[in-house]
Amino acid sequence: MSSFEDTTDETYRRIFSxxxxxxxxTIIVSLLGxxxxxxxxxxxxxxxxxxxxxxxxxxGLVQTFTDLGLSPVxxxxxxxxxxxxxxxxxxxxxxxxxxxxxxxxxxxxVGLLVYADKSSTMKTGLVLLLFSIPxxxxxxxxxxxxxARLRNTIIAIGSVLQQVVFVGLVILAVSLHKSxxxxxxxxxxxxxxxxxxxxxxAHREISFSLSFDRRVWNSMLRTSTPIGVAYVIGLLxxxxxxxxxxxxxxxxxxxxxxxxxxxxxxxxxxxxILSRTxxxxxxxxxxxxxxxxxxSALIYFSIGGTFSATAIMVCGPTVIRIVAGPHFGxxxxxxxxLGLGLIFICFSTFLSxxxxxxxxxxxxxxxxxxxxxxNVALNLVAIPKFGINGAATAxxxxxxxxxxxxxxLVRRETxxxxxxxxxxxxxxxxxxxxxxxxxxxxxxxxxxxxYGLALIPAVCVLYxxxxxxxxxxxxxxxxFIRSAIHNRHRxxxxxxx
Length: 497
What we know:
17 helices
């Protein structure tokens, strides 16, 4: 094995189990999410769905101010194993809930002021969903116990449970002809259930309670705030297009853009899963081993990014028709543009994790600020003239520049030359082969939904077969699979005798 120092077959089993569990949960959550989107777009319309998207974007931004970088720092500190985990979890829980007590009333006041000219439905939904923040916080803090141990199963079950509750209540709400406020209430109910489940599971293994120590909090904030500010800026970066559209466009256009973003968000979960999986190993890696650790993990992110972009390029419009309905054709162009950007997002997410793991997360701030300023400027120029297509293009341009900034930062701070182009070459070629081979089908204007659905397994098979023929599969994965097959045959042979 060659990825990390002192890595065993058991460690690899846990790594691949973590990735597969997270990916499986993402698929289940996404399918359930597609049902809820279909229910809202067909029963409530594009404008109501636009309200739902805008409220979620605003609440997500407010919630980030209750984090201030504490989540990734907590995960890193728990993974190190050199501090009392009970104390870490208790202090993090107490600090973040205290920050929520400040952020929620401020979020309510600012939201009602900024969107004073919007409908009462939107303002009511905004206030309602803000109260999901404390439950999301407790879930995130408790989840750090499992994340640091590569035990994504508990987290995956929690996310699926949350989505089941949400989707069930959304279907009930639209069946009873209720407004989008009830759909936002369904999101609140899902957050409550997921929080209860994750906290109960965590307390079964490690008992911790709310802790309030100002000295400890000050120490935690000194470490996390630079990262937190960068995370706030990063979220503003991701939500800038939606927020700017709320002032320069209509809720209907936001609904079209939100439908496209909902598909992209499914794939955005993948770099997060990979980051949670590889972060503990990069935290523990020695100075001599970090170079190999970075390059080994980089391959997985390159595959994740290129496969995501390929899947959206080929299957995206069909998925939009199924999820949102045939009247959401305006979502197709921004979906494909944003999908291409997933390649760069995957790499940037990974390099951001390297910064956190190696203790120079505070340097992310400048990179994020530059990207945000550029993103806002480009969106302000592009949206009035090109609408949602301009917003997607502006975001794509910024993602390319953001990646270049992160590559420079990691090379300067660690001395590691992130060979992004080298890591990208074969996965990108596999994606290109897949797109070209299936182009005669997916580029047809009269493509039937049945044929579009058939493209989904076709993309999976063709992409990974092409990648295998190009010898682009990770060597660690191949060695692990061979070892697992060998061990299985050996155990089978023993039973035979």
